[in-house]
Amino acid sequence: MSSYLHAFGAHLPERVVTNAELAERVGRTGDWIESVSGIRERRWAAPETTVADMGVAAAETCLRKAGISTNELGMLMVASGSGARGFPGPAAEVADRLCLSSVPAVDLPIASAGSLFGLALAMRLTEAYGDVLVVAAEKMSDVVETDPNTAILFGDGAGAALVSVRPGPWRMLDAVLHTDGQYRGDLACDQTGVLRMNGLAVILQAARKIPSSIEEVLRRQNISAKQVAVFLLHQANLNLLTRVAKALGVGPEKVFANVQRYGNTSSASMLIAAAEWSETNSERGPIVFSAFGAGFHWGALVADSAA
Q: CA-CA distance, 34 to 235, in Å (whole number)?
């Protein structure tokens, strides 16, 4: 039985934080920040705004675009690496605020790659649960401090996607997921709530593993990278997106990028990118999702325009 992607939704906080605003805080210039990351600005949520607040907003937008009500949902997944350090995770609150009184709500505490894992799992679970809503929400401004290697990169936001067995715009074809726990200390946020990142290890591994997983899933479906309409990737930084395009042998225009305006919103970034792309582009053909994040977790998913 096939699963389909029906709609995407996104939520971005109103506050825009420019490189100029960050420059003094991290002891760098605005030009330096853009040169190393490609990021010009990012959004930060208000102090009182929670991961669940942003997740609910993205979920409601997605459901409105899909034209369904919450009582039609069979499962909810909420991915967040910056959610509560304890339990329960944000999924329970998001479910309650969407008036889901008995629908299973699952937390995926996977930074950066959480939404990709959510989509891949949802693709397999629709046969049992029907419509599955995947939400990813991050408040990264709470976990970065003044380290110029991390504070310049991250922003806040949320994305959502509806997966269903009912025919929709994109039929999900295949997905691959991987984890290598030996690198788990190179990108982590513990009970102190402060992000630690070995930037060199992260960028080297991501630059290898993202193209490799994309090639793996495309090879299994006999699709070439040049046939893909768009690559919707985790928006880590612009330099990484450019490197992935080069590794795949496609032009950089094939890799959708909005990291310049929103920064790295961790697990939310891929779904925010998908929501923005789907609003402005009706190009038919295969689309590829891919992400890499803490764990290390990574993978790729391919879907195609439904007939």
A: 14
Rg (CA), the chain: 18
Residues 6+ apart with CB under 8 A from 279: none
**Residue from 149, 197, 187, 200 nearest 26 by CA:** 149
Q: Which amino acid is at 238?
A: L
Write down the H helix ranges in 154-237.
199-220
Report the candidate in 301, 297, 300 with the shortest Cα–Cα distance to residue 112: 297
Q: Give the integer Cα–Cα distance in Å for 8 and 251.
A: 25
The C-alpha atoms of residue 22 and residue 28 are separated, in whole angstroms, by 8
CA 8 to chain centre: 12
Q: Distance from first CA to last CA of the chain, Å, rounded?
A: 16
3-state SS, residue 254: helix
Q: What is the C-alpha to C-alpha distance for residues 235 and 80, in angstroms, rounded to an integer?
A: 15
292: left (phi over 0), alpha (psi -120 to 50) or beta: beta
pLDDT, averaged across the chain: 92
Residue in this structure with the two tokens 């290890």, named with its chain if needed = 201
| Mean pLDDT of the 257-281 span | 95
Backbone phi and psi for residue 138, each to the nearest 5 degrees, phi listed first: -140, 135
pLDDT score, position 65 = 96
Query: What does 231-288 look like in DSSP terms, one character per residue?
Result: EEE--S-HHHHHHHHHHHT--GGGB---HHHH-B-GGGHHHHHHHHHHHH----S-EE
pLDDT of residue 36: 85
Q: What's the average model confidence in pLDDT over 41-48?
A: 95
